[in-house]
Amino acid sequence: MTSTSELPWVEPGAFEVADDVWRVPLPLPNDGLRAVNVYVVVTPDGLVCVDGGWAIPESRDLFVKALGTMGHDLVDVRRFLVTHVHRDHYTQAVSVRQETGAHVGLGRGEKPTLDLLQDGDRHGMSAQVDGLEACGAPELAATIRQWIGMARPQSAHWESPDTWLGPGPVDLGPRTLEAVETPGHTRGHLVFYDNAGGLLFAGDHVLPTITPSIGFEPVPMDNPLGAFLDSLRVVRERPDARLLPAHGPVTDSAHARVDELLAHHDKRLDQTLAAVLGGARTAHEAGGILRWTRREHQLVDLDPFNAMLAVFETAAHLDLLVAQGRLTVTDQNNIRVYAP
């Protein structure tokens, strides 16, 4: 059992971040994020987890081991509150439920995505491939189409939750969390506030060292970046809280990171506008002008999956610029073409 640590945030274990709240980092396969933080809240009626991890054997084993250091076992987990439907947050909650009967709650806005993921006739990324073509990236779309053609979603991981959560209080006995809808990263993303304890279980909405992907969903939403920025402002308008992110170390101020994210996207909007003023016509062309990651990579330097994320991120910025009246967009042969 470890209450504090100077080790890297991905180091396995159970780390107490507040009274009766523990951070358990769990591994991600072939993922640059490396780990996802599951937060375990100890209540008189058992354990409540914010997020569940990715349903792979290594993650389950480390989860059980971490619970053991806390003096608990998997059967003590009575409930999962999942911030959003991505597999590194949702699928292990479902697999634990299949094993122990734990209750799973998920934001109500995720139902269209989960309905699609449960459709055996379509791959969950089919819409993304179509979207790449609309972004003017047919070659990248063909690469991704070939890739997803070799794998099908595991439907057992995408069972429906026991409860579709909306905004409002979540009673955990002596502790009450408040669910707040924060669409943007996904259409149904939730964060959970412990108002009395000054804690924000932020999921992927506010991350301390990276910006969450925007615009990458099986069922796209209109103007996802606009929704994300509005959701950041919702967090900024509330009292500051300790930031408990899904990826990265715990930090003392959610407000400080929100301010950085808002400034980043303001700058990125200006850069994206400049790309169109410089001659880019599609999200793919604009993405090719922009630079990516802290290492300032070009789009062509990214692997196909991250290139796809970059193109959709660019499209989200372009569509917000259209909504702001700074650009126009037309459909030309099923390709979205932007102009000043």
Architecture overview:
With 340 residues, the chain is α/β, with parallel strands linked by helices. It folds into 2 domains: 15-108 and 159-262, Metallo-beta-lactamase, Chain A; 270-339, no CATH class. The chain has helices at 57-69, 87-100, 111-117, 126-134, 138-148, 224-237, 254-277, 283-289, 304-323; strands at 15-18, 21-27, 35-43, 46-50, 77-82, 103-107, 163-165, 168-172, 175-181, 190-194, 199-203, 242-245, 328-332, 335-339. The strands form 3 sheets. The protein has a 7-stranded mixed sheet with strand order 1-2-3-4-5-6-7, with helices on one face. α2 (87-100) links the parallel β5 (77-82) and β6 (103-107). α4 (126-134) runs antiparallel to α5, α7 packs across α9 (304-323) and α8 (283-289) packs across α9 (304-323). It is globular, with a radius of gyration of 20 Å. The chain starts with 14 loop residues before the first strand and ends with a strand. Residues 1-6 have low confidence and may be disordered.
How would you summarize what this structure contains?
With 340 residues, this protein is α/β, with parallel strands linked by helices. 35% of the residues lie in helices and 22% in strands. It folds into 2 domains: 15-108 and 159-262, 4-Layer Sandwich (Metallo-beta-lactamase, Chain A); 270-339, no CATH class.
